[in-house]
Design goal:
Number of helices: 4
Strand content: under 5%
Radius of gyration: 13 Å
Largest sheet: none
Shape: globular
Helix content: 25-40%
Oligomer: single chain
């Protein structure tokens, strides 16, 4: 018997590892557009930070909170 173990990556993990295509696919299949990490950093914050603008646009279209802030009070940025 072959035993394998795997874990499904969260949307934020996909974005953090710059797997934009996989993140877009996850979003298309119902991933939470407002997912956040324990510090309150959202998927939109991560996509903006990594300059994944197509993904940021998809997150916004999927209802991501564009006015969100993390636990330190930082807001989204696309500088």
């Amino acid at each position: 018997m072959l035993h394998t173990s795997y874990r499904i990556m969260t949307l934020i993990e996909l974005i953090s590892s710059r797997q934009e295509a996989a993140a877009l696919q996850a979003l298309a299949h119902g991933a939470n557009a407002n997912e956040s990490d324990p510090d309150g950093n959202t998927a939109l914050m991560y996509s903006s930070n990594y300059v994944l603008l197509s993904l940021a646009a998809a997150l916004i279209s999927a209802g991501s909170n564009v006015n969100g802030s993390n636990s330190l009070g930082y807001f989204h940025t696309c500088d």
